Amino acid sequence: MNYKQLPKIDLHCHLDGSVRPETILELAAQQDIVLPSSDVNVIRDMMIAPETCPNLIEYLKRFDLPLSVMQTEEALERIAFEVYEDAALENVKYMEVRFGPLLHREKGLTIEQIIGAVVRGMKRAETTHGIKGNIILSLLRHMPTDEIKDVLDAGAEFLGKGVAAFDLAGGEELGFCERFIPSAQYAKEKGFHVTIHAGEQGEGQNVYDAITMLGAERVGHGIHIATHEQAFALVHAKQVALETCPSSNVQTKAVENMQVHPIEDFRRRGIPVTINTDNRTVSNTTMTKEVQIVIEQFNLSEEDYLHIYHNSVNAAFTDKETKEQLLAV
Q1: Element (H, E) at 11
Q2: What span, in angstroms and rounded, lies between the C-alpha atoms of 77 and 213?
Q3: 310 is in an annotated binding site
Q4: Pick from 28, 66, 241, 305: most CB atoms within 10 A?
Q5: What is the DSSP code string of 241-291?
């Protein structure tokens, strides 16, 4: 099977976790930012989380370096373009990239400027490479909730023009959903789709809550419904797609190793699973690599893989015309 030539869709990819190390060096030089090293290999090593990461918190520390250079419109536009370009060159047909606008204000950018720059980068890649895409606005669970409305108001101006959804990300505690009910409700009223990071770190109850309390149409990761009967039943009944990220799940110790990853068990039992990168740089991965890992680990046929691809098409936060194009490949 030619893994690179297979059509692919990535529904769960973080912008700040997918920056080229070479770009970090160039942007730092342009912005007079002093980095720990000028050696691209050292920078790359600092950005990649080890396979022995003890937990999600340690994994998330790898985002500090890229965020330091992602504080100008030019940098954000360039990085968004490059993430989509890298994906397009490995036959990713459609991609949803998520990022937290509130993390990019250190040099005075407005939320509108931040979102606009990322959308421009994506649109340029669409024109240049033929890939299709949308942006997801992530809010971090550990940050104050009083600015979420500002992000949603600014993002609403881009709905249907490059922005598609609202997301909650960051460290996961049991029971986090309740305090975000007003935010999710406001997002839906504005016209945002909703996807929530949940069930990544051992808490299947959070998946149940994300769907019932926050109206999640998709769930980021969601793998710990494997040990939560109610959540599994709800995901199955509502056919809520899971944005699984195999390599990342092993790195953050969400699963012990790939052999015990539940993606294939879920697929066989009728859960709409999808394959995604999470963070191309931090997880040192590509969609080609993720697809190959899953196909080879679970001995999937091309037909099995295309079933997963179709799950991704069906779950994508895009219009009917784009979905028809994606199904026609």
Answers
A1: strand 8-14
A2: 34
A3: no
A4: 66
A5: EEEE-HHHHHHTTSSS-GGG-THHHHHHTT--EEE--B-TTTTT--HHHHH
The encoded tokens of residue 108 equal 């005075």
Q: Which helix (H) or strand (E) holds 136?
A: strand 132-140
Q: Looking at this protein, which amino acid is placed at residue 283?
A: S
pLDDT at 328: 93
* Per-residue pLDDT at 52: 66
Checking 301-306 for CB contacts under 8 A at 24+ apart, the result is 302/1, 302/6, 304/267, 305/6
Q: Do 225 and 231 meet the contact criterion of CB atoms below 8 Å apart?
A: yes
| Integer Cα distance of 266 and 232 in angstroms | 9
Over the Cα atoms of the chain, what is R_g?
18
Give the Cα separation of 118 and 77 in Å (integer). Answer: 5
Q: Does 45 show up as a binding residue in the annotation?
A: no
Tell me if 190 sits within 8 A of 213, measured CB to CB.
no
First-last CA distance in the chain: 16
pLDDT at 64: 87
Catalytic residues: 200
Determine the pLDDT at residue 49: 82
Angle formed by the axes of helices 73-88 and 21-30, nearest 10°: 160
**Does the annotation flag 14 for ligand binding?**
yes
> Position of tokens 């994506």?
122
Q: Which residues of the chain have pLDDT under 50?
A: none
Query: In whole angstroms, what separates CA 175 from the centre of its chain?
Result: 22
Instruction: Give me the pLDDT at residue 55, please.
Output: 74
Q: Domains in the chain, ordered, with CATH?
A: 8-318 (3.20.20.140)
Over residues 140-152, the pLDDT tens digits come to 998 889 999 999 9
221 marked as part of a ligand binding site: no
